[in-house]
Write a structure and sequence with these properties.
The chain contains six helices and two strands. It is mostly helical. It has one domain: Orthogonal Bundle (Arc Repressor Mutant, subunit A), CATH 1.10.10.10. It has a two-stranded antiparallel ribbon with strand order 1-2. Helix 2 packs across helix 3 and helix 3 crosses helix 4. It is globular and about 55 Å long.
Length: about 150
């Protein structure tokens, strides 16, 4: 396959795989969608007890508005509390509840089994190469910014 076709294949495959993983992942846990799980992972990996909506949005590559919508749903389900910042009432912080921590701990073994099955047949060189490639894509996408350079002009 020539280089340009490989790039097109990879580009299209990212979307296809994302959709398929979302379908599988949404069946994994009746209480959380994959996107909600990703939001929780962003919160838990933020390094902060209660990160802001904006901080989590940056971590997971989403808009603040989408994060707020998901966080409100997670709050209704008892997974998080949305709290105004004590120094600036305009800032909302997302605080995982004890129920959230318990739920995540309960599914940990299944998550590991899921990842092992997902990457069956991948040797360390393939994993390293995939990690490197995804990291380079992330860098390139960040450099492309908001995409205004690629917006069709009249």
């Amino acid at each position: 396959m020539e280089t340009l076709k490989k790039k097109g294949y990879i580009f299209a495959s990212i979307f296809t795989l994302s959709n398929r993983l979302q379908v599988i992942g949404d069946k994994f846990d009746k209480d959380l969608t994959v996107k909600q799980w990703l939001l929780l992972a962003g919160i838990l990996n933020s390094g902060k007890k209660a990160p802001t909506l904006t901080e989590v949005a940056a971590i997971i590559g989403s808009s603040r508005q989408n994060v707020k919508k998901m966080a409100v749903a997670l709050e209704k389900a008892g997974f998080v509390n949305l709290e105004k910042d004590e120094n600036d009432a305009r800032i909302l912080r997302i605080n995982p509840t004890d129920m959230c921590w318990e739920h995540i701990k309960k599914r940990e073994k299944r998550e590991i089994e899921f990842l092992e099955r997902l990457f069956t047949g991948f040797d360390i060189q393939t994993l390293d190469g995939l990690c490197k490639g995804i990291s380079e894509l992330e860098r390139n996408i960040a450099e492309m910014g908001d995409g205004n350079d690629y917006e069709e002009k009249d």
